[in-house]
Write a structure and sequence with these properties.
By secondary structure, this protein is of the alpha/beta class. It folds into three domains: 3-100 and 202-265, Adenylosuccinate Synthetase, subunit A, domain 1 (Adenylosuccinate Synthetase, Chain A, domain 1, 3-Layer(aba) Sandwich); 105-199, Adenylosuccinate Synthetase, subunit A, domain 2 (Orthogonal Bundle); 268-429, Adenylosuccinate Synthetase, Chain A, domain 3, CATH 3.90.170.10. It contains eleven helices and 20 strands. The strands form four sheets. The chain has a ten-stranded mixed sheet with strand order 9-7-5-2-10-1-11-14-19-20, sandwiched between helices. Strands 12, 13, 15, 16 and 18 form a five-stranded mixed sheet that branches. A hairpin with a 5-residue loop joins strand 15 (345-353) and strand 16 (359-360). The longest helix is centred in the middle third of the chain and has 20 residues, at 158-177. The structure holds guanosine-5'-diphosphate, 6-O-phosphoryl inosine monophosphate and magnesium ion. Residues 8, 11-13, 38-41, 127-130, 132, 134-135, 224-226, 229, 240-241, 274-275, 304 line the site of 6-O-phosphoryl inosine monophosphate (IMO).
Length: 432
Amino acid sequence: MPLNILVGTQWGDEGKGRIVDLLSARSDYVVRYNGGDNAGHTVTVDRQTFKLHLIPSGIIHPHTLGILGNGLVINPKSLLTEMDMLTNAGIAVNPQRLKISYAAHLITPGHIALDKAKEAARGKGQIGTTGRGIGPAYTDKAARSGLRMYDLLSADQVGAKVRAHLELINHQLVTQYTAEPVDIAAVVADFEVYAQKLAPYIIDTGALLDEALNQGKVVLAEGAQGILLDIDHGSYPFVTSSNVTATGVFTGLGIGIHAVGKVTGATKCFQSRVGAGPFPTELDGEMALFLRGTGSNPWDEFGTTTGRPRRVGWLDGVLLRYARRINGLTDLVLTKLDVLSGLREIQVCVAYRDAGGNEYAVPPMGVCDLETFQPVYESLPGWQADLTKVRQWKDLPEAAQNYVRFVEKIGGVPVSLVSVGPERSQVVEVPA
Ligand code: GDP
Ligand code: IMO
Ligand code: MG
C-alpha cells in the first residue's frame, strides 16, 4: 500500500531523520504534515551531515519529491535558509522538487516575539519551548487570524496583511507583556521578498498527493516531534501545538483516508526530553552522563534545534505501549543501540506504580498525570562489544538481541530494524 507513516514514539529526537532517510530510498514523495522549524532532523550520509528543520529528510535522495503539507506552520526565513543550505550542499531544491501547501500557516517575527514573551511570563511554569513561534502561530490558526502561504500569492496585498497582523501582535506585546514591539516596516519588506521567492512553490498539495496515491506512488509521511508532545495525546500542557500522531497525517496533508501500509515508530533505546514536563524514568548523575554524552560526539544528546542538553532516562515500556495504541503502530525501528554498549545492566520500565501501590501496564488517564507514578523496572544484562560495525542480526551480542526481543514484548509491536550509528549504512535488519 502506498502511504507509509513514520512517527516518533517518545518526546522527539528518536532519530526520525535518519530513519526517514532509509525509508525514502523506496518512496516517491516525502512529506511533512505537522510542526515547523521546532523540529531538528539529522541525516548522515558518508561523512556529510544535514540538519533539517522544515524540509522533509527524504529530500537527500535525488529521486524524491518533497511536500510541506497544510498542517505545518512555516517560518519563511528559516525555509529559505534551509533551501540555500541544501542547494549549496549539492541537493537540488526547486519548484519541481519541493511543493508547499497554500493552506500552511506562516510564522512571523511577531509569533516568535510572543512565544518568548509568553515563556518569560510563565516564570517557573515554563514549557521550555524552542522559541520558534510555534504556539502563537497555531493559536492564530485556531483563532482564525493567521496568515497562510496563500496570502503570499497576492503580491500587492502581502504588505497590508502582514502590517495588520503585526499591529495586533505589537499591541499584545506592549500592553500585555511589556515587551519590545517588532519593527513592522522591516518585517513587511522581508515578507514582500519571501512572497516573490516562495510563490512558485505554493500549490494545492493535497490534490497532488491524492493523484499520486491513486497512481500507486509511494508516499512517506514524516512526523516531527514525538507522540508524547502531541497537543491532544501528549503530556499536556508540556507539549507542542500540533497533532504529531499518525492520525494527524490526513488532516495535515489534506487527503482523505487512504489505505495505509506501515505505521513505523522510531524509538530510541532510552528516553530523552528537551524542555519541561514529567519524565518518570529520568536519570541524573553518572548514568545520565553516560546516556547523554558530553557533547564530544555529534550524536550526543544536545538539541538539534536549540543546542540545549536533553534530559535522559531509561526506556519507558509503559509509554511505548501507549504510543503503539495511539498510532496503530505496525513496527518499530530502534535507534542508538550502540550507545548502550558498555553497561553491565540495562533497566526498562515495564509498569507504573501509584502512591497506593497499585500497578498499571498503561497509564489510566493517558499521559496527563505522569508525575504521580513511580516506574517499575526490569533489569536486563548488558553487553560490552562495540556495535557500530555490526550489520547482521547474527553478529549482535546475545544480550543485545535479547534486549531487542524484550522491547518487542513490552511494546507489543515487532522491531523491524535497529540502528547502531548515525550513518545511513549503520543498520541491522531484525528477523521476524
Ligand atoms: P530526530 O529529531 O528524531 O530526527 O532526531 P535528531 O536528529 O534530533 O537526534 C538524533 C541524533 O542521534 C542525531 O544526532 C543522529 O545523527 C543520531 N543518531 C540516530 N540514530 C543513531 C544511532 O543508531 N546511533 C547513534 N550513535 N546515533 C544515532
Ligand atoms: P524533533 O522533530 C524534541 C519540545 C520543546 C518543548 C515543547 C514545546 O526534532 O523530534 P514548541 O517550540 O514546539 O512550542 O515547544 O516541545 N519540542 C521538541 N523536543 N524534538 C523536537 O522535534 C521538538 N519540537 C518541539 O522542547 O518542550
Ligand atoms: Mg530532533
